[in-house]
Amino acid sequence: MIGYTCVGTNDFPRAVVFYDTLLGLMGAKRFFESDRGVGWATAGDKPMFSVMKPFDGGAATVGNGTMVALAAANREQVEALYAKALALGGKDEGVPGLRGDNFYGAYFRDLDGNKLAAFCMT
User: Which of 28, 56, 85, 111 pairs with 17 at a CA distance of 20 to 30 A?
Assistant: First the structure.
């Protein structure tokens, strides 16, 4: 159902390094590149995650209540994504853990303040 997601950045080179490293843990590779944005996916027929400079030339801002959730393979990958995001300079928004009966997730913000989750169903 979802084709791609996009978050904005005010420091494009820094954001690309952050997501190259973070999404590489999930086997994602660059599927789209331009001078304004990069998109990653695990395969050409899978949803893509992208980071872009805003089209209007204005500053990128964080959406209140907006979050992108990355589907991890298992709890170990949730924990690895969370740890890598923090090691790369991201901010904690909720440590890895079970939330409900079978939802295992962790929450963090990227270098521009965009909120992301890594989760798996156990």
Answer: 56
